[in-house]
Amino acid sequence: MNKERPFILDHVARHIKLDQKEESFFLGLLEEKSIGRKEFILREKEVSKASIYVVKGCLRSYTIDENGFEHILQFAPPDWWMADMYSLISQKPGNLNMDAIEESELLLLYRKDQEILFHEIPKFERFFRILTENALIATRQRLIENLSLKAKQRFAGFCQHYPNLIEHIPQKYIASYIGVTPEFLSKLKAEYFRNQSPHSSK
User: Fold this and answer.
1) Which residues 6+ apart lie within 8 Å of 26 measured at CB?
2) 199: which DSSP letter?
3) 3-state secondary structure of 120
4) What's the topology of domain 7-148?
5) Nearest-angstrom CA–CA distance, 10 and 101
6) Exposure of 89 in the CB half-sphere (CA atoms within 13 A)
7) Within 13 A of 171's CA, how many CA atoms are on the CB side?
8) Are 64 and 45 in contact (CB under 8 A)?
9) Tens of pLDDT along 96-121?
10) H or E element: which one contains 154?
């Protein structure tokens, strides 16, 4: 861990307060990992062993259907967590693939070390409960949006949820996330930003 105050401590501090000893104990349980673009951190049918915090870069999680099409479920830019919650909690093989969209620096908290953390610093149970609840809410909202919203509204939702990724990641990934072709996404983007322009007609 570098000598500068790790961003993850500020992230944790939004929900629970730690003293210096608790911060050091927590940091000591984390494993640093760097992965390259398109490198996997988890593959379908593997058992998830850790929760992943993104320090730098961006991850995506996705499934592949029987026709070979990718369906992106989530992006994880810096200061986001990512995990296959089903596999992590059940310790059974999951159905998600996770790889890096660009070179990424990660912090891994293994499931076994998370249990140690809960025992030594019980307030972390509250922290991870908040993360889990937020993830469940986001998953439910995404399901509802996919079932009930038009593509234009789904793209607007993406822009609100991931404002820093709109021009930062390949457009084919955004198209996969909202369920449209890249060509149709180009039309959605043009219309969306035209409407966002201060010079657009009211």
Assistant:
1) 9, 12, 18, 117, 121, 124
2) T
3) helix
4) Jelly Rolls (2.60.120)
5) 25
6) 6
7) 12
8) no
9) 999 999 999 999 999 999 999 999 99
10) helix 151-161
Whose tokens are 């293994």? That residue is 110
Tens-digit pLDDT profile for residues 14-65 = 999 999 999 999 999 999 999 999 999 999 999 999 999 999 999 999 999 9
SS3 201: coil
3-state secondary structure of 192: helix
Residues 6 or more apart whose CB falls under 8 angstroms from that of 14 comprise: none
Return d(Cα 44, Cα 40) in angstroms, integer: 10
> Any bridge partners for residue 61, and if so which?
74, 98
Domain boundaries, the chain: 7-148, 149-202
Record the tokens describing residue 62, joined without a space.
Answer: 């996705």
Q: Residue 122 in 3-state DSSP? A: coil
Are 35 and 71 in contact by the 8 Å Cβ rule? The answer is: no
C-alpha distance from residue 137 to each of 34, 62, 79, 134 (Å)? 29, 18, 18, 5
Q: Confirm whether pTM is higher than 0.85.
A: yes
